Amino acid sequence: MSGTADKTFYLETFGCQMNVHDSEKVIGTLLQEGYRQVPTVEEAGLILYNTCSIRDKAEQKVFHRLADYKKLQAQGKKFGVLGCVAQQEGEKIFERAPHVSMVCGSASYRNLPEMLVQIETGNRSTGLDDRATDHCFETEYTARTNPHRGYITIIEGCDKFCAYCVVPFTRGKERSRTSSSVLAEARQLADLGYTEIQLLGQNVNSYRDPDGKKSFAELLAAVGEVAGIRRVRFTTSHPRDFGRDIVDVLEAVPTLCDHVHLPVQSGSTRVLDAMQRLYTRDQYLERISWIHAAQRDLSITTDLIVGFPGETEHEFEQTLSLLDEVGYDSAFTFKYSPRPNTPAIGLDDAIPDGEKAWRLAVVNEKQKQMSAHRNKRHLGRTVEVMVEGKNPRGQWIGRTSQIKVLNFTVPEGVELKTGSYVDVRVTASFSNSLVGEMVSAARGS
Ligand code: SF4
């Protein structure tokens, strides 16, 4: 390490939005402990990887990184593995990569200050709370990396045990924060100038206020009513816990964004049952019918897995027909891959990889056409975007309330600030973006 005078760290994050936000809290904690963040491994005394084990590829990447930089140990650098791979592999990581000094799962991040002291004194340190932990990682030292969109974790862990998923094992049981602490954080973000808030959790709608004051829908509404907040998003929702009351508040509170992400995973009830998803195709479609019936034009996105063990061609076709019935705006699609310690590991993963790849290509092509079709409805409309920056062609990039990317031009001489809101008329649409021309600054900008 570089000594106590200049303690430096480099942190690379893999995986989901929860990990990205966890990293913001980890960075805040390290800064508080006197560390300074640096942009390269070479400059750092402590090299940290916040890992994801949802797919084998993400996990392998971390071990490749560790192998690549092993030689730097000779310069006194220390290595730490955080997150899901840390929790899943535990102290086995020390055997596989002996130059690692710290292994810490996400449920143990509150112990980071003590763990840092241990590794600074040349010891190894392990933080591996089990599933039963009641602890959350609430810290006042969050180093927010996006100056306009503030993330707030409302629930950690997961109690669903979908057959293919490692999260219930790596992130522990469900632990919700009190609605009062969530609202206090939302107000604090608004005071700091944030205008968009994204509520995070593996299943935000499984939220249970420990004080019993608010349901998830009520909390969503209350965050949307915080003065200064213009946009509120939430991710991810589990279909079983997705109630009609969520659509009701989306209708009632204008600051809530026109978007619902509702992962379906498969269009076949038999496969959903094998996946232990706790809902049928019809129950899923019932929730979609509430969203379709809303007065607001809500965009719907999803996650899909193809080639789950035993998925027949007919069952795969049911997924394709579900895409038609729902009309998703976009979908994150994946080939099934077995993950250690998950219930599905015992199932016969007999579908050849080539067949899985073919199914994935078919689903992607179908969704691409659907996305292009869905995006056409915006043509000629004027929509509000939050400005996010410029693309390589010099056009401005904005994000609509429906979470679509809109590349747009502005009248000559106009300069915009990132984080500001402008109204843009949509002049062209593609499968994954819209194009437009700025009309005016949005109301209240
Ligand atoms: S709901 Fe299922 S897929 Fe989502 S985190 Fe929990 S176990 Fe994993």
Description:
- The protein is an alpha/beta fold and 445 residues long.
- The protein has 4 domains: 124 residues, Methylthiotransferase, N-terminal domain (Rossmann fold, 3-Layer(aba) Sandwich), CATH 3.40.50.12160; 112 residues, Transcription Regulator spoIIAA (2-Layer Sandwich), CATH 3.30.750.210; 84 residues, Transcription Regulator spoIIAA (2-Layer Sandwich); 60 residues, Nucleic acid-binding proteins (OB fold (Dihydrolipoamide Acetyltransferase, E2P), Beta Barrel).
- The chain contains 13 helices and 19 strands.
- The strands form 5 sheets. A 6-stranded parallel β-sheet has the order 2-1-3-4-5-6, with helices on both faces. A 5-stranded mixed beta barrel has the order 15-16-17-19-18. The protein has a 3-stranded parallel β-sheet with strand order 7-10-11, sandwiched between helices.
- Helix 2 links the parallel strand 3 and strand 4.
- It starts with 6 loop residues before the first strand and ends with a strand.
- 44% of the residues are buried.
- The site of iron/sulfur cluster (SF4) has 10 residues, from helix 6.
